[in-house]
Amino acid sequence: MSVLIDTVAWVRVEDGRVLCARPRGKDVFYVPGGKREGSESDLETLLREIKEELTVLIDPSTAVHVGTYEAEVPGAPTGTVVRMSCYTADYEGRLSASSEIEETAWFSYADRPLVPPVDQLLFDDLKASGKLI
């Protein structure tokens, strides 16, 4: 039986590095974002999750879809796949980790092994397009 985990992520690249976050109680970093709730649109999920995780407000008028990636989830039952719809967007406020997030970091391509397989696919595309150092 296959299980699909449907997520939306915010791709924020500055100076050749992409913003990543490590949730409280976990030892792995992810591109910020999270699971869709109910019938939320991608944009609604993006705005809610980024406000919850990083305490900033995404400007919905600037959101641009940059890719959707799928990969198996390590350590999960066989057939468990995460789908990550990725968007860039401007934001208002000061980036800071919320109570859900232990720490944030700016990752270069060299940090690719520290993120899950689905995030690694995004890293590959960012590197190929010259956005990630």
From TrEMBL:
Keywords: Hydrolase. The keyword Hydrolase applies. Pfam families: NUDIX. One of its GO terms (molecular function) is hydrolase activity. Coiled coil: none annotated. Gene3D superfamilies: Nucleoside Triphosphate Pyrophosphohydrolase. It comes from the Bacteria. Residues 1-128 form the Nudix hydrolase domain. CDD domains: NUDIX_Hydrolase. This is NUDIX domain-containing protein. It comes from Streptomyces guryensis.
